Amino acid sequence: MSDRIYNFSAGPSMLPLSVLEAAASEMTNFAGSGMSVMEMSHRSKVYLSIFEEVKESLKKALSVPDTHEILFMQGGATFQFSAVPLNLMGEDGSADYAITGNFASVAMNEAKKYGAVNIAASSEDKNHTYIPAQSEIKTSNGASYFYYCANNTIYGTEWKYIPSVSAPLVCDMSSSILSKPVDVPKFGVIFAGVQKNMAPAGMAVVIIDKALAGQELKYTPRLMSYKVAIEKDSMDNTPPCYTIYMLGLVLKWLETQGGVAGMEKLKTAKAKLLYDYLDESALFSACVPGADARSDMNVTFRAATEELDKAFVKDAAAHGFENLAGHRSVGGMRASIYNAMPEAGVAALVKFMNDFELKNK
Ligand SMILES: Cc1ncc(COP(=O)(O)O)c(C=O)c1O
Fold first, then answer.
1. How far are the Cα atoms of 47, 205, 254, 273 from residue 53, in angstroms, in the given order?
2. 236/329 same-domain check
3. Which of 74, 83, 84, 80 shows the shortest CA–CA distance to 188?
4. For atom 4 of ligand 1, which residue has the closest CA?
5. Is the dihedral of CA 347, 350, 356, 358 positive or negative?
6. Is residue 5 part of a domain?
7. 328 lies in the same domain as 224
8. Is the CB of 78 under 6 A from ligand 1?
9. Does the beta carbon of 240 sit less than 6 angstroms from any atom of ligand 1?
10. Closest protein CA for atom 14 of ligand 1
11. How many domains does the chain have?
12. Are 215 and 341 in a shared domain?
């Protein structure tokens, strides 16, 4: 469709056009039911078949073992910042946190309300432009879990390794889930707000090792309890039905693209295009120096001056490259190139950046 722009938003983000078209085509009458998915009971046969299929597709896409349960929970990723300690910290418990950006920091502050927190690693000394090495991680004795954020959406860094620790691993994968295969059995809890690589906003996917459920603090709200969510198959109350359905369409699309292995290949190629250009450019530079920490999902960069940053973002928008301004807390630019961004979009952006550079020599 020629009126679509290249949308580099960090979230909510682009969805594949074919997904939007499929949703549009069954918007008013889903599969001959005479109703929109938005209008049907979540307990109806027709909706339950959608729900089961989505769970099955996600299980398959991420090779989720039977030891783990997939949950759909409202409140986005931020809700999980509270749900994690409320479910896993335990009475008089403690937890280890790796602080590699704003979202991990917010999550840690939430956890402090419910127990003791140890900062096991941090990249704050260099404004979160790197990922601590395994040897720099200092865990504490008896921690109920180790928490980290796999991809730091604001700073543009990504953990390229899974930390090796003895406590159960809890990981916020909001901005990288479904972009590559994940070794799910290694994790106690994986959660992700869906509005980047999965679906429209309003929900988090949680993948939990069932053995960890049932240790919630006594005042944990019922809707935050992983145990209740498992027992009720994410339907203790009305789930975000339409968002779950949209996730199903995205997962069908993903399968046609070679699944998460296909996405990994694509994201590597897209990120390489941008980083290679940034490393050569005399005007622009990547904010994250080390290739071992650069995010393949959120590429952060700057021009030579703040004025040029602003001029670039404005000029880019005028040419159909939207939402390239960096997060308000860090400035500069950020190109979020999630799964739905085609390689052609990144190639066009690189060409535009090169033209801008030539004009601003
Ligand atoms: C890594 C990460 N975690 C958490 C969040 C917060 O997500 P939500 O708005 O769904 O609560 C975001 C949002 O951009 C994010 O990028």
1. 10, 15, 14, 36
2. no
3. 84
4. 77
5. negative
6. no
7. no
8. yes
9. no
10. 11
11. 2
12. no
225 and 240 in a single domain? The answer is yes
Closest ligand 1 atom to 80 CA: 11
Say yes or no: 146 and 264 in one domain.
no
As a whole number of angstroms, the distance between CA 137 and CA 313 comes to 37
Ligand 1 in reach of 76 Cβ (< 6 A): yes
Which atom of ligand 1 is the closest one to the Cα of 101?
1
Which of 82, 175, 247, 323 to probe ligand 1 with, by most ligand atoms within 8 A of CB? 175
Give 220-227's long-range contacts (Cβ < 8 A, gap of 24+): 220/86, 220/87, 221/86, 223/73, 223/74, 224/79, 224/82, 224/83, 224/86, 224/87, 225/87, 226/71, 226/83, 226/87, 226/189, 227/87
Q: Is residue 13 included in any domain, yes or no?
A: no
118 and 39 in a common domain: yes
Cis status, amide bond into 221, omega within 30 of 0: no
Same domain, 234 and 303: no
How much distance in Å is there from the Cα of 77 to the middle of ligand 1? 5
Query: Measured from the CB, is residue 168 less than 6 Å from ligand 1?
Result: no
Q: What is the CATH number of the domain that holds 24?
A: 3.40.640.10
Q: Does 11 fall in a domain?
A: no
From first to last of its 361 residues, the chain has per-residue pLDDT tens of 468 999 999 999 999 999 999 999 999 999 999 999 999 999 999 999 999 999 999 999 999 999 999 999 999 999 999 999 999 999 999 999 999 999 999 999 999 999 999 999 999 999 999 999 999 999 999 999 999 999 999 999 999 999 999 999 999 999 999 999 999 999 999 999 999 999 999 999 999 999 999 999 999 999 999 999 999 999 999 999 999 999 999 999 999 999 999 999 999 999 999 999 999 999 999 999 999 999 999 999 999 999 999 999 999 999 999 999 999 999 999 999 999 999 999 999 999 999 999 999 8
Residue 140: give the domain boundaries. 18-256
Residue 143 lies in a domain: yes
